[in-house]
Amino acid sequence: MPKVTIQQLRKRNQVSATNATNKPRTIGSPYDKSQRKSNGLTGSSNGAAENTRHFGPMFNKDLGQHILINPLVSQGIVDKANLKQTDTVLEVGPGTGNLTVKILEQAKKVIACEADARLAAELTKRVQGGPFQYKLEILQGDVMKRDLPFFDVCISNTPYQISSPLTFKLIFHRPIFRCAVLMFQREFALRLIARPGDSLYGRLSINCQLYAKVTHIMKVGKNNFKPPPNVESSVVKIEPLNPPPPVDFEEWDGLVRIAFTRKHKTLAANFKPTATMQLLEDNYKTFCAANDVMLEDGFVMKEKVLGVLDQTGYSDSRAAKMDIDDFLKLLSAFHDAGIHFC
Predict the structure, then answer these.
(1) How far is CA 325 from the centre of its chain?
(2) Could you give the CA distance from residue 131 to residue 105 in angstroms, rounded to a whole number?
(3) Which terminus of the chain has fewer CB atoms gathered within 10 Å of its CB, N or C?
(4) Is the Cβ–Cβ distance between 213 and 187 less than 8 Å?
(5) Handedness of CA 56, 58, 59, 63 (dihedral sign)
(6) 266: β partners
(7) Neighbours of 263 (CB within 10 A)
(8) Tens-binned pLDDT, residue by residue, of the chain (342 aa)
(9) What is the spatial distance between Cα 137 and Cα 130, in angstroms, rounded to a whole number?
């Protein structure tokens, strides 16, 4: 083997350094993990950014921004809405417009409510100059803080934190619309469709089903969203009853709230707490004063309430097993006795 001197090694090192200096540098992608690691940018804040960053806007999970990216799911949602060419569609939370463009293909007009100004601008750019530009109207702002416009159908990849208030805002909207196809967190959707005896049956279930027919449409896995949420999702279809039942919702909800305080306890047990009895007694005295009714001698509210439960046969019933008809009968009996819940 030929001998290598110290001078020769130094000369080779100088040549290698010169070549490395003159070699063109490659600029790595900002989304390249190895590049960020070499630059020391793999902290927790950048890790979170990686999960929400794509070639577009940064998504805000605090606003429930989980964009539906599966076109087959989007098309399935639109198909279940049974849109007509004359329909005006309200879309809540359009995001970047993946669902919006499919609605625009079938509807006369889409009114999109978007809370994030950045995403509203993205959606505007997406349809600008195209055939759907004049069919789309964007309302920028919080949908819960504004009056809803007229619409025939509502379609929404709903921000999960407004699921309940949005549901009832839609149910009480007038004029009555034809249907709403809404994406919800799986557990919330199952609570909406739960029936008496189901483990998730509760106040939400019976209040919603009093005013609308609710059906489960499809399950949607978390990987169909970007960024993916922490929970699975489901799509439900809500069809408001037309005409709606002639029930005072405040009265109805007052009764249901007491009954479902402990849904597996008997109604008699749920009505017995002192605070509940005091509320009903105050309401009863107000009712009597407003209608010139004299209080009975030796009036005891507890006896009056339990008497109504005994007469109707619901004293030993449990809210978890009672349906809408049961509560309507009970509410009517309480009203006949002058007992009100609000």
Answers:
(1) 27
(2) 9
(3) N
(4) no
(5) negative
(6) 318
(7) 15
(8) 455 555 564 566 555 545 544 443 333 333 344 433 433 334 433 443 333 333 455 555 555 578 999 999 999 999 999 999 999 999 999 999 999 999 999 999 999 999 999 999 999 999 999 999 999 999 999 999 999 999 999 999 999 899 999 999 999 999 999 999 999 999 999 999 999 999 999 999 999 999 999 999 999 999 999 989 999 999 999 999 999 999 999 999 999 999 999 999 999 999 999 999 999 999 999 999 999 988 888 889 999 999 999 999 999 999 999 999 999 999 999 999 999 998
(9) 14
**Region of 271 on the Ramachandran plot (φ > 0 left; ψ -120 to 50 alpha; else beta):** alpha
Cα 327 to chain centroid distance, Å, stands at 26
Q: State how far the Cα of 157 lies from the Cα of 74, in Å rounded to an integer.
A: 10
Contacting residues for 233 by C-beta, under 8 A, at least 6 apart: 183, 184, 185, 186, 189, 219, 220, 221, 222, 224, 225
Structure tokens belonging to residue 266: 């008997």
- What is the distance between the terminal CA atoms of the chain, rounded to a whole angstrom? 102
pTM value?
A: 0.80
CA 320 – CA 20 distance, rounded (Å): 76
